[in-house]
Amino acid sequence: MKVLLFAILDHQEETEKLLHQLSSEGYNGTVIPTSGLHHVLPSFNDSQTGAISLSCMVDDLPSGNITLFIVIEEEKVEILKEKIRNATSSFKKIKGGMFVLPLSSVEGTF
């Protein structure tokens, strides 16, 4: 059975190193830039008050989070989770988290 591993990680240099490592080891997945609530809510307040946020002016700088998801065989997921734990120092060096969902049906070249 295949499962879907989600990892939400702070975007920083170590996160990019982890992604390069996983890619070089043959893992294939999708990465989406995401933002947590604490990053999004201030911009909502700025739009209501008419104030200009400096963060809006530097959107091209890496910030926020990345969300990685990988479809993987269930028997291989623990190895992948351990690689993520090691790279993040159990989410102390790189803040974030991960979870796994079972997939009842998968089609495509995962």
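^ that was protein a. below is b, sequence first then the tokens
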Amino acid sequence: MRSTEAQKDTDTQSRTGRLELARKMETGFPSPASDHLEKALNLEELVVFRPSATFYVRAQGNAMQRSGIHDKDILIVDRSITPRHGNIIVTSIDEEPSIRRFAKQGSRIFLVSDDSSLKPIAVTKETAWTIWGVVTHVIHRFSLEGK
């Protein structure tokens, strides 16, 4: 494919939000044959279950790195999902936005970070907190030289 054709394909992808999806992709050199293409892939269709209840947030810091959330990752958050034990949530605690794991022990709720230097927060009747939504996906960019 010539570079002008590649640019044209990129322009079309950015307008439609659709990319070609390969059925199987070996970790070696992939076959460019079109018979390996399954269908057009729209990332928003893949990660957004309820558009009216979904928003995106950029993570800041590495306190949830063991869960696969790194600094500057984009989180897809669904505010219509009721959090369950183990879900990662976007919340505010004393009006400070935060990303934590929702943990339930009996009737008690804790907000837990992957960073062991941050103590779990026990939610009580006195705790000023709000659940903004449950994280459903994370978009993580691999490091690229010069980027």
